[in-house]
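re the bet — no i am not wrong, look at it urself. input seq straight from the record:
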Amino acid sequence: MMQTVRLFLLLEGLAFLTAALTHFGVLFPGYAHRQASIAESVIVCVLLIGAAISFARPSLTRRAGLLAQGFALFGTLVGILTIIVGIGPRTVPDIVYHIVIVIVLAIGIAVTVRGHQVIASSQNLD
């Protein structure tokens, strides 16, 4: 379970890093958006801190995973709200990215919660 949570945190962090670099204008010119790049950079940091905690303190993997992914999901939902009200970038790639990353984050959170339940259930069998 720990490896799966770590993998989700690292892959989600990579996805947000890609989005941040895109919005900084580094990866794909023409998609720069300062506010989005800052928000995505903060989310990258939170996800990577969560991953680092899971490596440094394995007993905190579940908690770090839930907090980091929950923060990322909240930030992404705020990003969707900015798209809806017209403040955030409204390109097709931005909209698709937000939909996909919400799904990935929701699955990551579910796996993190479910993994803990599976471990707890197996300990009760002893």
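see?? The radius of gyration is 16 Å. told u. also Residues 2-124 form one domain. so pay up
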